[in-house]
Write a sequence for this structure.
């Protein structure tokens, strides 16, 4: 073992211990008493982990002896696994580090629009991850229910428009409720192809055909479709926007994402019946600035609208999520 | 900046860069192409983080140039914050690293039985953490509902026994349902004191007095209480065990935790009416061995029992949790 020690004048010291097998440890001692030990090794199989645990137990015991039990707090964090085929770290929308119980890469492809991953989680089933964002897991019926109005709507005989929704979850659940016609507009055929194969707990068989008795799936950008429908005067009882999360950006002047969001909202209101409802997911509850900015957009649409919101626990998200219901303000006659 | 480089014969190399302000970075390059960069600094305020992000952006750009864009995958993880007053890392029961949005230590005391922490989470409200285990947050009505039978039981006029439950959540919810009498047996007065002050979304005002119109709270070890009740022939319609998680140990021979669990179960069955129900939380769904061992205990009780289980998403747990319903097997007459 090689030892290198660096002494700062005012900042304590750093010792680095290097083993012949390629592993090493940093021992960082701060003058006010904080001691950090980081151990890095390669090829971490279970046996390696047990060895590391035993080593750390010894270090802990020895430290306690040295300080005569005068240690205020000891905390050992689970090892972080990097560089393997399986990536278990998918930070939350509010930027927290969370480790998923991913044990298999089921699907990993780049479409013309995004990177599409479907990873298997022991507890959540398959998880769809689009360009690094956890979209939906097979455990997440709570998401689909929330974005459909939390069971308070009657879809029987209704005209429904779904924007996005390529995982098929919303389509699958609404089709069960005997709507008149559901039109889903999803830009990315590869999302549909991946999900119909690997997210069947979410979409059932509804994506096996792009057309059914009471639904059709259009593989198109929703903007021109909305424009066409608006021009034709086609109207819907429900518009469900399952496109993208509210942008994390809190500086709307700096990018056009909010403009895009407002365009979608305006066009959606144009094809929404006067007593219709628009459902969408908002953002994680902690990104209050982004939520406020989204709500500000709602006051800037071509027609006056009102909205309500609901906070829902979506199992695979590891953070609470806000969903919106938006409707046209009823004017007194 | 000081640079130290270590070359292994077969294991690549490690460069350590040390700055005058006490921060340092490790650059670990493995021969097969994995590059790990770890940056450690002290006094991490927002400005420090922005600087770090900019630095890492530069490193990433430079690496991409050096490798002519021939990099398969780049992943940057959120910083881990250690040594501060607030500890944001409370690993799941299945050992995964998860970061909570803790922003305040509300309560932190050692009772004669355990360490009691109540930490404030931006999204979950106050969280009760007993000896390092996340017990319940103010967001976790789903836990309380699940351990009460998921809304399928009629508590009106019933005799209920709660084992543990010091956060008051179960007591508060059942008292609303007009039971005949609820007896709660909690060993730790300090848990009650902490929760009645800081977990009021969970317990309401029910812990303000240890006796109410239809409930009483006994500050006692539940084992002698159960023995007394069994001896007296006192019977309950519902016994709700909210004591402790199923031990993680999968070697029941090696410790007596399973014996303890079985003792509680046996005594509970003795005070449970023939058509009564016993509810308890089990464990996280991923600890399948521990769940199986628990179910094996159920076949070893003094009387034959049957059980069902349900998997529930408890918001603050960040993992799915299994709850059990156990009842006495009805014998044909």
């Amino acid at each position: 073992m090689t030892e290198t020690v660096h002494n700062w004048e005012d900042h304590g010291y750093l010792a680095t211990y290097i083993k012949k097998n390629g592993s090493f440890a940093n021992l960082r001692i701060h003058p006010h008493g904080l001691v950090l030990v980081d151990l890095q090794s390669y090829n971490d199989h279970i046996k390696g982990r047990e060895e590391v645990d035993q080593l750390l137990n010894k270090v802990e015991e020895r430290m306690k002896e040295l300080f005569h039990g005068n240690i205020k707090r000891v905390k050992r964090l689970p090892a972080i696994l990097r560089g393997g085929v399986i990536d278990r770290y998918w930070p939350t929308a509010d930027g927290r580090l969370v480790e998923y119980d991913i044990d298999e890469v089921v699907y990993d492809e780049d479409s013309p629009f995004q990177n599409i991953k479907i990873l298997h989680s022991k507890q959540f089933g398959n998880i769809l991850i689009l360009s690094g964002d956890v979209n939906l897991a097979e455990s997440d019926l709570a998401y689909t229910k929330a974005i459909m109005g939390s069971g308070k709507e009657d879809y029987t005989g209704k005209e429904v428009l779904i924007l996005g929704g390529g995982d098929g979850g919303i389509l699958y659940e609404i089709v069960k409720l005997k709507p008149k016609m559901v039109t889903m507009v999803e830009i990315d055929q590869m999302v549909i192809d991946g999900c119909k194969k690997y997210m069947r707990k979410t979409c059932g068989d509804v994506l096996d055909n792009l057309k059914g008795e009471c639904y059709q799936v259009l593989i198109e950008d929703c903007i021109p479709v909305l424009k066409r429908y608006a021009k034709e005067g086609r109207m819907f009882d429900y518009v469900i926007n399952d496109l993208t999360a509210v942008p994390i950006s809190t500086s709307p002047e700096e990018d056009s994402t909010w403009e895009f969001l407002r365009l979608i909202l305006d066009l959606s209101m144009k094809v929404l019946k006067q007593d219709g409802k628009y459902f969408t997911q908002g953002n994680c509850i902690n990104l209050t600035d982004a939520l406020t900015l989204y709500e500000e957009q709602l006051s800037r649409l071509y027609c006056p609208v009102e909205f309500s919101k609901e906070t829902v626990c979506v199992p695979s998200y590891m953070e609470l999520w806000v969903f919106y219901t938006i409707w046209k303000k009823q004017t007194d006659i």
